[in-house]
Amino acid sequence: MSSLTTNVSPLRQRMIDDMRMRKFNGKTQTHYIRAVRRLAAFLRRSPDTATAEELRAFQLHMVDTGTAPPTINATLSGLKFFFDVTLGHAELLVMVQPVHQPRPLPVVLSCDEVARLIAAAPNPKYQAALSVAYGAGLRAAEVCALKVSDIDSERMTLRVEQGKGRKDRYALLSPVLLERLRAWWRVGHAQGKMLPGGWLFPGLNPMDPLSTRQLNRAIHLAADAAHIDKRVSMHTLRHSFATHLLEQKVDIRVIQVLLGHKRLETTALYTHVATEVLRAVISPLETLPSP
């Protein structure tokens, strides 16, 4: 947050304070400040002087210059907070609306590809981290934020603190995953990296957690080493976790809870890529009488 609070105007400082009051994370604060900067650059004057027509023109400008829908919507979210909360003029946004974002089907790995990917990870720490991402369906940031104390071997759960939406939940801890985590703990402890009550996956400095950038770099190296030609990211393992559970006929509401999804509609996306489920469906063509 130091980059946000150095040499800032009173208006920007008020916005930062408004976000801090609501305990927005640093990434969200940075994105919201960037959105207001974009508007100021478009207006060439202070953003708090914008009119409703100028905000409409700004959205048209983003569309005409080829700005991607996710970026447009993220920018509008930041502006909504600025005008609604910081300025108290929500009515100025009446002429701007979020744009539809086409949602492509997620990339899903086969079970064999997941096994090859994990085995090809650079070292035991990354093998264990990728195993957590797939075996428990965690997001990259959630994997990095795990502490040794979050492992509950008696209840066979992983405690995920302050996941997306600042919500706590319990994730699945299978016997195989538990054994892999224990194997990593023995290696990390022998290397002096596992501090009492510390991170499950420490970074170069054991006082700091592994970063999502390091984790993403590791999975890309593993995908290359395993000769997987699909577009792979940490979220691919989460997609694969959900899809494989659905193919095992696990109730979709259970999968929703394990993933920490707020809406069932989000989880239902995986019904479109669960090929085992599709293959189990008998086409009505098969039931027609022979001519």
UniProtKB/TrEMBL annotation:
It comes from the Bacteria. Keywords: DNA integration, DNA recombination, DNA-binding. Residues 6-87 form the Core-binding (CB) domain. Residues 104-283 form the Tyr recombinase domain. It holds the Pfam family Phage_integrase. PROSITE patterns: CB (PS51900), TYR_RECOMBINASE (PS51898). Belongs to the 'phage' integrase family. This is Site-specific integrase. It comes from Pelomonas caseinilytica.
